[in-house]
């Protein structure tokens, strides 16, 4: 590492973590994005494991059946 | 003055009395006298024997030796992260409504509970409208009947337990809301009961009005076989064999007893992932913080 090249970690530390105010803000905003991504991710896993079994799948089937009867 | 007291107490605390330092624990079995050894041995034997006896007695109390234990069936929802099969739950509701509801109540179920779980709102409204509910009083102070609404409970087959007993040879058909959790073996037991009717083996007497079922404790159950092939016709065209009917009604009753089932398992994935990270970091932090202490020898040296 040269004198003028600053690593990404250092940059992040300097801009976000060094001051308590920005550190707290980073946590708040980070939580927002993390939770959204985490919910989507785990939801996707659950839906994959239970493909075709949940109410949303049953609802599609019911609509198909209703359409066929008409 | 305060400094004096402080100094005195500090002295008292820190001064090492030789009697304290040389105190030795005398708890080893080897150092006991012969009589005490005997006493300890006898006490140990008695304790172990007593525990053994208690366990044996407790096992014997489960006097269900002549009952057939239900096998474990591969339920769709048996896995750690497996959701209920909603199509099966929906068929199970049909079985309950057309067969079991003649004798069994579902006291804690409302029509609104069906919405978004096994049917759409307008369909649930139509379901509710099929029953008549006593409501009131109206502005003349009279009770009146009206079609059911989403906020109404499922209808009860009998007005009270006495009427239920009177209609069933003195036996009370239990409420089925929590029956899956209320019986050992859960839906495996229920499935076995519903499909397990057979002729009693030679020498077994079954009283008038009772039916032989090897899965029911005691062998004689007051409920007659309720499910037969093609006893109802499914909306979705699934062949209504006895085992299909039983499987569906068991899945339905699991959902009734545990409506939060799917949400719980959905949260299970999150909990497992988050706690893996948290536990690992907690373990790492513990090791990191304790490392200096564990690698040092700390000695207390007065004076």
Automatic annotation (TrEMBL), chain A:
InterPro entries to which the protein is assigned, alphabetical: QCR9 (IPR008027), QCR9_sf (IPR036656)
Chain's role: Component of the ubiquinol-cytochrome c oxidoreductase, a multisubunit transmembrane complex that is part of the mitochondrial electron transport chain which drives oxidative phosphorylation. The complex plays an important role in the uptake of multiple carbon sources present in different host niches.
Protein location: Mitochondrion inner membrane
One Pfam family recorded for the sequence: UCR_UQCRX_QCR9
Name of the featured protein: Complex III subunit 9
Keywords tagged on the record: Electron transport, Membrane, Mitochondrion, Mitochondrion inner membrane, Respiratory chain, Transmembrane, Transmembrane helix, Transport
A biological-process GO annotation: mitochondrial electron transport, ubiquinol to cytochrome c
Protein family membership: Belongs to the UQCR10/QCR9 family.
SUPFAM superfamilies in the cross-refs: Subunit X (non-heme 7 kDa protein) of cytochrome bc1 complex (Ubiquinol-cytochrome c reductase)
Membrane topology: Single-pass membrane protein
Oligomeric form and interacting partners: Component of the ubiquinol-cytochrome c oxidoreductase (cytochrome b-c1 complex, complex III, CIII), a multisubunit enzyme composed of 3 respiratory subunits cytochrome b, cytochrome c1 and Rieske protein, 2 core protein subunits, and additional low-molecular weight protein subunits.
GO cellular component: mitochondrial inner membrane; respiratory chain complex III
From TrEMBL, chain B:
Gene Ontology molecular function: metal ion binding
Binding site for heme c: 100, 103-104, 223
GO cellular component: mitochondrial inner membrane
TM helices/strands, residue ranges: 38-63
Keyword Heme: yes
Domain of life of the organism encoding this protein: Eukaryota
UniProt subcellular location: Mitochondrion inner membrane
InterPro entries: Cyt_c-like_dom (IPR009056), Cyt_c-like_dom_sf (IPR036909), Cyt_c1 (IPR002326), Cyt_c1_TM_anchor_C (IPR021157)
Cofactor comment: Binds 1 heme c group covalently per subunit.
Cytochrome c domain span: 87-239
Protein family according to the UniProt entry: Belongs to the cytochrome c family.
Descriptive protein name: Cytochrome c1, heme protein, mitochondrial
Species of provenance: Sinanodonta woodiana (Chinese pond mussel)
Source lineage: Eukaryota, Metazoa, Spiralia, Lophotrochozoa, Mollusca
């Amino acid at each position: 590492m040269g004198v003028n090249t600053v690593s990404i970690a250092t940059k992040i530390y300097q801009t976000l973590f060094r001051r308590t105010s920005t550190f707290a803000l980073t946590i708040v905003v980070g939580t927002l994005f993390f939770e959204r991504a985490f919910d989507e991710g785990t939801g996707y896993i659950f839906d994959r494991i239970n493909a075709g079994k949940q109410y949303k799948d049953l609802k599609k089937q019911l609509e198909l059946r209703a359409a066929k009867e008409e | 003055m305060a400094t004096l007291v402080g100094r005195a107490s500090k002295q008292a605390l820190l001064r090492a009395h030789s009697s304290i330092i040389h105190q030795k624990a005398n708890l080893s079995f080897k150092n006991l006298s012969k009589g005490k050894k005997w006493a300890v041995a006898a006490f140990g034997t008695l304790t172990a024997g007593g525990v053994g006896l208690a366990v044996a007695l407790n096992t014997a109390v489960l006097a269900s030796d002549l009952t057939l234990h239900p096998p474990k069936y591969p339920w769709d929802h048996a896995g750690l992260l497996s959701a209920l099969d909603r199509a099966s739950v929906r068929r199970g509701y049909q079985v309950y409504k057309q067969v079991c509801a003649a004798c069994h109540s579902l006291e804690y179920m409302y029509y609104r509970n069906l919405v978004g779980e096994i049917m759409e709102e307008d369909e649930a409204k139509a379901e509710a409208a099929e029953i008549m509910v006593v409501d009131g009083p109206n502005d003349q102070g009279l009770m009146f009947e009206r079609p059911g609404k989403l906020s109404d409970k499922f209808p009860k087959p009998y007005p009270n337990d006495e009427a239920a007993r009177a209609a069933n040879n003195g036996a009370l058909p239990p409420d089925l809301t929590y029956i899956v959790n209320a019986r050992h073996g859960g839906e495996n037991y229920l499935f076995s009961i519903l499909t397990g009717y057979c002729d009693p083996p030679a020498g077994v007497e079954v009283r008038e009005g009772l039916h032989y079922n090897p899965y029911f404790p005691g062998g004689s159950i007051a409920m007659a076989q309720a499910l037969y092939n093609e006893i109802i016709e499914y909306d979705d065209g699934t062949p209504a064999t006895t085992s299909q009917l039983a499987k569906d009604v068991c899945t339905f009753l699991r959902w009734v007893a545990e409506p939060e089932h799917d949400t719980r398992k959905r949260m299970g994935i999150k909990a497992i992932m988050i706690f893996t990270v948290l536990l690992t970091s907690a373990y790492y932090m513990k090791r990191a913080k304790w490392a200096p202490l564990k690698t040092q020898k700390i000695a207390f040296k007065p004076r």
